[in-house]
Each structure stands twice: as structure tokens, then as C-alpha cells.
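To make this tangible, we now present a fold written out as C-alpha cells:
***
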Amino acid sequence: MIVRTRANVRALTGIDCDNAWVVVDKDKLTFSFDRDWLKASLFAKIEADQIRYTASPEQNTTLWDNNFGLEAEATVGNFVFNSTITETTRRGYAAQSMNKNRLLWDANVTWKILKNKARLSLTFQDILNNEDGFWSSQTAYQHSSTWQDFHHHYIGISFNYHLDAKKKD
């Protein structure tokens, strides 16, 4: 957890601000389970930015951007199945349309071939079609937030081959 005090905000932005402090937790808290063929983990990532303005206290707010979810990987023979389900939440923004919950789901299946030297993968991104783009920046004098709803779920296929570098004698 990183706690930024008024002095830290001044050092980062070059702006002297009254009673401004930011608490940001950029690390993911994770609880994992691991067996021979199954790996699963629950995770939580919580970010809170407390914005305080002495000149216009009606603009004071605490912005919450959180992620909670489940990641799983199962290996069955030469196949590896991956899936990630994430609930994203945003709270504290002036525009109610930005205070959203979104359930995101990505999945991947990989086939290990050619004596494990090659991998053929099929990837599914944003299966539920709920992804959005979101950008926010805050300073002592302004708060700017923008978002973009886009519908882009897609399927990708890839092939990777590992070449062994061998020394010639």
C-alpha cells in the first residue's frame, strides 16, 4: 500500500495543495490453490483516490476502482485451459454513468504439440462483451475523467515454436 501525503503530492506534481492525500493499493491480494493439474486463485485489487479541495469542497470525493475475480488453469494431457473472470467496479465519480460494475471473462486453450516444442492457442477475449475504456487523472486544481464503451470481443489463434539454439562443434 502506498500512502501519498501532501509532501508526496507536491513532489510528484510540483503543485502545493491543501489537505490532499492519496491512498493507492496497486498490489493484488491473491489466495491461490495448486494441485498437479489445477491452479486456481481468487484475487482482489483495490484502489482508492481521496480528492480534497479547500477552494471548492463540494468537489471533494473518494474515487474507487476495484477488481475482484477468479483465475484458473487446468492441464489435461497436452491441453492447457485458462480462464479469468473479473468483476470491476468504479464508484465516487460525478457522472453516474461512470459508476459501473462490469463482469469480464477471458479464456484460452493451448495445445502442446511436437514434443512440447510448439503451442497452438485459441484465445477468447471479452466473451461477455462488457469491456470499456476508462481514463482518469486528478491534480490539485482539476479532475479529468473520460470513458469509452466499445464492443470488441474477439477470438484469436496463435502458433509458437521454440527453437533450440545448439552450439556447432
